[in-house]
Each structure stands twice: as C-alpha cells, then as structure tokens.
Design a protein that fits this description.
With about 350 residues, the chain is an alpha/beta fold. Helices cover about 15% and strands about 30% of the residues.
C-alpha cells in the first residue's frame, strides 16, 4: 500500500513541512523506521532526536519547531494529537478483518441462549444456560461463559477467558486472553481453627468500551456487585477484588492489586504495581504512582506515591534522601560522639 502526504492529510488534517507528493509505503516505530515509513514523535526525548530518525515522514505536535541549524531529512506533519493521528493511518494499512457469523461445530451451547446477529463462536467454546449475547460479538476458542451471563454488542472475548455466573459485559468490551471475571472473592469466616468458605452470590458488571488486559482476575463478592464503569482500561496481570467499584475512564496499569470494597473514582490513574487496601475511597482524577502502597483514602485530584503513600512532591524529597541515609547515620553518630566528648570535658 502507498499513500502520498497529500492523501494522508485528507484523512488526518496536518500542517506539512516538506514534499507533499512524498509517498509512504509503511508505518513503523521511531527507532525502526525506514526511508519510506511514517512514524510519530510527541515525547521530548524523541523530538530531540528527530535529526537522527531515518523515517521518511514524522507526525509531530503542532507546537514543535526544529532547533536552529538542525537539518531534518524527513517530512513533518504537525497535528494536535500525533499518536492518535498515527494510529488512524495505521488502521488503513492494517484494516480489521470483517467478522463472519459462524458457530463452530465443537462449541457447546446451553439452554435458552439468546444471540444477536453476526455473532461468531469459535472452537471449544462452552456457553451455559440463559446466556444473552448481543450483535456482532466475537467469542474466540476455549472460552467458558457460565449461566446467566450477558454480553453486549460488538464485544470481543479472546481465547481462554472465563466468565462466571451472572457476569454482565457492556457493548464494545474487549477481554484479553486468560482473564477470569466473576470468580469467588477471598471470603472466609473463622470458626475455631477452621476458615469456613462463604457462599458468593454477587456478580461482576462491566460498562461500555471497557478493555480488560490479559490474565486479569476480577472477583465477585458474597453479596452485591463488583463494577467497572464505562471506558475503564486495565493492563495485564491486574487483580480487582470483591465489591470494588471503579468509575468511568479510569486507567489501571500492570500488576496493580485493589483489595475488596474499595471505591475508585472517575478518570483515576493507578500506575504499575501499586497496591490499594480495602474499604478505601480514591477520589476522581487522583493519580497513584508506581509501587505505591495506599492505606488510607486519597482525595480527588491528588497525586500520591511511596509506601505508605504520601503527596508525590513529598515522596520525591523522601526518595532522594533514602540513598543518603547510611552516610547521614555515620555523620550523626560522629556528631553524637563529639558532643559526648565535649560534655565530658565540660564536666
């Protein structure tokens, strides 16, 4: 496939610096791009290296201006959102295959299944009783969907996913391989020296345009609902415990663990490997930094980091001091000895 710069800016409006007739034959990452590839750069570290980029054309922010006397050998396309613009072009070079309705002969379908138009069910899928599947849903191989589940329109369930009883997915949901939604939460009651398992009758409800990463576990509770709002995106290896509530458009990055009955607000960002204790509230637009250990509520719009969590600016000061603690300890010990010697002399 070939696209000239003139053809590209009809799809993605941009201010062009360079040859409008230059042809793009492929798209690539910044460091791997060749002479007829299109790439993008929006981070300052990449923009500073544009003169070393081998790409034929680069999408950059509207505000970008090359340094004086720096020679660039590529066409620049300035847009308001370089990353989004790049991926719009990428979809032209790698169009999605149309979904062809089909039910594989090895699929097992339960009683009272209600399925919409254009749904595709691949090999070795097992679907329980009283399941509702919307239009144009794609269920990939080896998926298990238990009794009473609901899948909205245009949802994609990738291989080896398990949806337990009563799980509800909105429309345009993507669940990546190996995830388990609706498994029992960590619910036990101590009886003498025995931990008695509690019945889990709750369920998981997931909103529209949600994407669940690979190998997530999202638990149901003994009662009530574990819920993820519209537009939530989780990375791989995320654990969301029973009765957690996550607001719209929140981002949860890899290896995050959220303990039971915690409420996460809207547009929150939880960075990688953060751990959040149970029965807490994280306010709207808060940001939890990587590796943070959150043990109490976080107000809206606050940025926290560290273990235990604290305001991010405080954590930056603390983390800069930590490597110097051994040296500071020696100095303090030395000062203590000197003070003791002075006290002894004065006596």
């Amino acid at each position: 496939m070939k696209l000239s710069i003139n053809e590209i800016i009809k799809i993605v409006p941009a201010l062009v610096t360079g040859d409008h007739d230059f042809e793009i034959t492929g798209l690539s990452s910044f460091d791997d791009a060749g002479s007829h590839d299109l790439t993008f750069a929006c981070d300052p570290t990449y923009l500073a290296r544009l003169n070393r980029c081998r790409a034929g054309a680069v999408i950059v922010p509207e505000s970008f201006s090359p340094q004086p006397l720096v020679s660039l050998n590529c066409v620049l396309l300035k847009t308001s959102n370089p990353k989004l613009s790049f991926f719009k072009i990428l979809e032209l070079f790698h169009p999605k295959k149309p979904l062809i309705a089909h039910v594989h002969g090895t699929a097992i379908l339960g009683r009272n299944l209600r399925s919409g138009e254009g749904t595709r069910v691949e090999a070795n899928v097992v679907i329980g009783d009283d399941v509702v599947i919307g239009n144009h849903v794609h269920i990939m191989p080896n998926v298990y969907i238990a009794n009473g589940c609901v899948l909205g329109d245009y949802t994609v369930i990738k291989p080896n996913v398990t949806l337990m009883e009563g799980t509800i997915l909105g429309h345009h949901v993507i669940v990546h391989p190996g995830s388990v939604i609706g498994s029992d939460g960590y619910g036990f009651a101590q009886n003498a020296q025995i931990h008695e398992k509690l019945a889990h009758t709750g369920h998981v409800k997931i909103g529209n345009h949600v994407e669940i990463g690979a190998c997530n576990t999202i638990d149901k509770g003994t009662l009530g609902v574990t819920s993820l709002g519209n537009g939530v995106k989780t990375d791989n290896l995320v654990h969301i415990a029973h009765n957690v509530k996550i607001g719209d458009n929140t981002l949860v990055v890899a290896q995050v663990g959220i303990a039971g009955s915690t409420c996460i607000g809207k547009n929150v960002i939880i960075a990688g490997k953060a751990g959040i204790s149970g029965h807490l509230t994280i306010g709207d637009y808060a940001i939890v930094g990587p590796y943070a250990g959150v043990s109490k509520d976080v107000p809206a719009n606050e940025i926290v980091s560290g273990i235990p969590h604290m305001p991010h600016k405080t954590w930056l000061k603390v983390s800069s001091i930590v490597p110097r603690l051994p040296e500071m300890r020696k100095k303090i010990s030395s000062l203590e000895r000197k003070m003791k010697n002075l006290e002894n002399k004065s006596e």
